[in-house]
Amino acid sequence: MKNETDTDAIFIGWDVGGWNCERNSRSKDALVILDSKLNIVGQPFRGNLRKVINQAGKSEELIGLVFDLCEAGSPPTNAAITLAIDTPLGFPSALVNLITGTGHSGHIGASESNPYLYRYTERFLFDYGLKPLSAIKDMIGSQATKGIHFLSKFALEMQSVGVWSDSKRLTVVEAYPSACSASDRIRLELVRYLANRDFLPDDFRVKDVLFEDQGRLFNELFKLVEKLQEAEAGPKVMEVETEKWIRPIGHPDIRDALVCALIAYVFVTDRNELAPPKDDVPPSEGWVWVPRDSLNFRRDRLVDQV
Q1: Which of 271, 264, 266, 196 lies closest to 11 in space, CA to CA?
Q2: What residues does 83 pair with on adjacent strands?
Q3: CB under 8 Å to 83, separation ≥6 — which residues?
Q4: pLDDT of 159-195, one tens digit each?
Q5: Contact assessment for residue 262 and residue 36, using Cβ atoms and an 8 Å cutoff
Q6: Helix ranges, the chain (H)
Q7: How far apart are CA 1 and CA 237, in angstroms?
Q8: Is the Cβ–Cβ distance between 171 and 163 less than 8 Å?
Q9: Distance between CA atoms of 57 and 59, rounded to whole angstroms?
Q10: What span, in angstroms and rounded, lies between the C-alpha atoms of 288 and 89?
Q11: Cys-Cys crosslink for 41: which of 33, 169, 230, 304, Cβ 3.0 to 4.6 Å?
Q12: Contact 52, 21 (CB under 8 A)
């Protein structure tokens, strides 16, 4: 893991815990910072960001505090920073209309099509076999308000549907790590991430991986890990990093934060790989950026048809 931040781009993943998640041993805020070569910068953080969110006055101060939490040194001065957040960054517009007395949605049918419970983007995901959580009925309202509060304070400018900015160098999008389990593209990035760690032999690292080689690469990686763990001697950093980042890549919160950071990377480097917002999405609801191929996998349909 690097403590240097000499890079032209930074990608941060944030798996969001509740406002008082320090009381919850199973689910907390988690942060992972990646540089443009997908090296982890500093150390992953797991805890509660509430104090930092309250303390920071502006986005640049917030970025510095996040780097401090991750023991990542000073943020690079001119690097663009993309943050992918795993929590709903909006509420259903039908629910807002209902609460404010400006209208109702008429007939209500199945749960997954209920416009009071799910945003357009979540109903879209249901159409492709995914099962996103509802900020209204699935007990993640604390996380959702935390994420929306963050947007309101540090990235209020909406560049386009589902993309927010501080009008300087911070861009924020919403991610959904669970949707990525079926994505060849994200698995590819995970393979690249795993196979290019500094503690692996030079001849084992890969720069370009074919999809069909992923299973073989994972098997070889795990075999290598076993050999490293069985070795009688070796740098302690090697033992720590292999245990933490290859098997099982840390706590589930940190794994989700890592996937969020990879979504941020794909969003910047190859956005066409992610399913874009539909034309009739209410802008205030935001959009969940998921890999197109996770939708293909779920329903065996071409994304271009959706």
Answers
A1: 264
A2: 12, 172
A3: 12, 13, 14, 170, 171, 172, 173, 264
A4: 999 999 999 999 999 999 988 877 877 877 776 666 5
A5: no
A6: 50-55, 59-69, 93-100, 120-127, 141-154, 184-195, 214-230, 236-245, 252-269, 292-299
A7: 10
A8: yes
A9: 7
A10: 9
A11: 33
A12: no
pLDDT tens-place string over residues 71-119:
999 999 889 999 999 999 999 999 999 999 998 988 899 999 999 999 9
Place of tokens 């090697």: 238
Element (H, E) at 13: strand 9-15
End-to-end Cα distance, the chain = 40
**Which residue type, as a one-letter code, is found at position 67?**
F
Q: What distances in angstroms separate CA 192 from CA 4, 195, 204, 248, one per listed residue? A: 20, 5, 11, 16
Assign 183 to helix, strand or coil: coil
Residue written as tokens 């994304």? 303
Find, among 143, 150, 175, the residue nearest to 21 by Cα: 143
CA distance 48 to 46: 7
